[in-house]
Amino acid sequence: MKCKYCGSTNIAWDHKSGHIVCQDCGAILGNIFEEESYNKEEIFRRRPNRISNENGAFEKSVEKIVAKVLRRGKILESTNGKVSIISIIDKNLDEVKNDEEFMISRKVLDGYPILKARTKRNKYALALYAVYRIRGYSKTKSIELVSKRLKTSKHTLENILDRYPTQSRSFLEGVRKALKKV
């Protein structure tokens, strides 16, 4: 496998986060795990030899699944007896999706491959960070606001900005220009 951004063959499968990552440029190249939906019947059908409901075995199995989901930064949503696994960032994004400045910033980000290659959570954090910076907030205050609004790590966003300072500044200027046109 080869990185589509830098061409490196130094690729790692991070089973803890569920991502395939380029070790040279840090790009997220794909997901190891697919989003899935679970319900009681599916779990019994998938694991008939391992799960019976004696002594609370089903509940213990569900607890393991829930723990795994939460470790991956996902949440469970139940609709009509079916439980779906969704990303926390998708849930938190609902409130910013209607912000026109955010959507423009998100589109501009697509022109910056190294920044665009981040996880969905970090791409949205970068886009929202640019909006706050253009609104006049300091770097520190913008990072704090993004962290609160999207429930993301301040440290991760700081690391991205520090690791790719040239691309980050260029992206910020690109967003500033795009927003002036609106």
What does the secondary structure layout of this molecule look like, with pairings?
Elements: E1 11-14, E2 19-22, E3 28-31, E4 37-38, H1 40-46, H2 57-71, E5 74-79, E6 82-87, H3 88-93, H4 100-109, H5 113-116, H6 120-134, H7 139-150, H8 154-163, H9 165-181
Antiparallel strand pairs: 1-2, 2-3, 4-6, 5-6
Strand segment count? 6
| Count of the domains | 3
Question: Which structural class fits the helix and strand makeup?
Answer: alpha+beta
Strand order of the largest sheet: 1-2-3
Figure out the total of helices. 9
Shape: globular
Overall mean pLDDT stands at 79
Q: What radius of gyration results from the CA coordinates?
A: 20 Å
Instruction: Let me know the largest β-sheet.
Output: 3 strands, antiparallel
Q: Which residue ranges are poorly predicted, with pLDDT under 50 across at least 5 consecutive positions?
A: 34-38, 47-53
The termini sit apart by: 41 Å
Helix content: 40-55%
Q: How large is the share of residues in beta strands?
A: 5-15%
Q: Output the helix-strand order.
A: EEEEHHEEHHHHHHH
Give an account of the 3D structure.
The protein is α+β, with helices and mostly antiparallel strands and 182 residues long. It folds into three domains: 33 residues, no CATH class; 51 residues, no CATH class; 87 residues. A hairpin with a 2-residue loop joins β5 and β6. α4 packs across α6, α6 crosses α7 and α6 crosses α9. The longest helix is centred in the C-terminal third of the chain and has 17 residues. The termini are far apart.
